[in-house]
Amino acid sequence: VDSRIRSLPIFRHFDPEFLCHLVLNCERRAYFPRQYMVCEGEVCDGLIIINRGSAVLEKESIDIKTITCGSYWGGLRMLGFDAPSCCALVAQSTCHVIVIPRKAWQTAITQYPSLDAELELRAELEAAENQVK
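^ that's the sequence the OP posted. Answer follows.
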């Protein structure tokens, strides 16, 4: 989990202490094939990172994009945006995922503020979600 979070390009500009806080306060979850991680129109509870396995983003029951190890979804929710997910996220295989909840993010950014890194992260997360809209 530690190496997965630290290796994500979206976190490259954050301090090691910030990343350590995320690692210590993330959630670990398992999903089985065809199990929904996020339903379309639902507000997810944080950034979902695929640590092992693969999942598919679905829109109106049509596969849009396959995401695999090191890919993520729902980052804007982690930052505090309450917009519903434009897609469902469904496990294709057995998946181990890491979830960084909004509360863990807020605590880390309060303790280890980095405005430039946060703005860059927001831009990257918005671009990723706009690709599938």
